[in-house]
Design brief:
The protein is built from no helices and 20 strands. With 298 residues, the protein is mainly β.
């Protein structure tokens, strides 16, 4: 039996049951970020990418309960799994590493005004793209607060979806922002949402980060390795620092977090993850690395 452990930004799972059939999820590749629709097929939830006759179905092993809504559009990425022999599945197995709810507004008539006025003069609305913000409820008014150009701004959508009316919810929002009359007090700029995604993230246990990486993590992604063979090495003690050597020891990676079960000197592993650059004037025993999937090679 293979020992498999997956580290994810959002969710963790090992073995799953689908359609009354049991199988072990074995990583086989990466699924890049894409838009899909949550669908229910019998007792099984799938993610469907594409439309019409050109579709791909994915079978998530760790779809959160709050996303099990038929027809809900989402943005997701994850680790693809092998399709076991002699097992019929509803789609390609995938282990989600990031998932967001997606809302796309139905376009309104161009003559429909959302209050783009400034002292009585008509102005064209300002396009806002992918602003990261927080949903807030102030005096019975739902608004989105975010940082732009070093300043905090508030926007009052006229089409805030019910499922996003949750205080403290972190979102990415795009849309059109109106202008305020300087003589009128308002909660924020009038706003019409065109696209809205809610971020679901797992809080990281910072105590698990290896000592040399504590001031460097999270880091800027510079590249990725997928299903690469390597060997875990105990590089130093007090505290214990583990690295992963690949390419016959010619390449060293310094994981930010390595699971306790894999802290074994000379353990052969198959590893998938992202790496960063070593900062200037910083000495490290390996390239900064974030493990997504790690598996012992028997």
């Amino acid at each position: 039996m293979k020992r498999i452990l997956t580290l994810m930004i959002a969710f963790m799972i090992g073995t799953a049951l689908f359609a009354q059939q049991e199988f072990t999820f074995t990583p086989a590749g990466k699924k890049s970020k894409t838009i899909a629709t949550v669908m229910q097929k019998g007792d099984t939830w799938i993610l469907r990418e594409g439309q019409g006759s050109v579709v791909i179905d994915y079978l998530p092993v760790n779809l959160p309960e709050e996303f099990k809504t038929d027809g809900q559009e989402v943005v997701f990425e994850g680790v693809l799994g092998e399709i076991p022999a002699n097992v019929r599945l509803q789609g390609k197995p995938v282990e989600i590493t990031l998932i967001k709810r997606l809302y796309r507004a139905v376009p309104k008539d161009k003559t429909d005004d959302i209050g783009h006025t400034d002292g009585g003069d008509k102005k064209q609305p300002e396009a806002i793209e992918n602003l990261r913000g927080v949903v807030m409820l102030v005096a019975n008014t739902w608004l989105i607060e975010g940082e732009r150009n070093g300043h905090t701004e508030r926007f009052v959508p006229d089409n805030m979806p019910e499922e996003f009316r949750e205080e403290g919810l972190e979102v990415f929002v795009s849309g059109s922002a109106g202008y305020l009359d300087p003589n009128v007090r308002a909660m924020g700029r009038p706003f019409r949402i065109t696209e809205l995604t809610a971020v679901v993230e797992q809080k990281m246990d910072t105590t698990a980060i290896q000592e040399p990486m504590k001031d460097l993590f999270p880091f800027q992604e510079a590249g990725r390795i997928t299903a690469v063979e390597g060997v875990v090495k105990l590089f130093s003690s007090d505290p214990d620092i583990y690295i992963i050597e690949t390419n016959n020891g010619t390449r060293r990676y310094l994981p930010a977090i390595i699971p306790d079960a894999f802290k074994v000197h000379n353990l052969r592993v198959l590893v998938t993850g992202v790496y960063g650059e070593i900062p200037a004037n910083v000495r490290l025993m390996g390239t900064p690395f974030e493990i997504e999937v790690i598996e012992e090679i028997k």
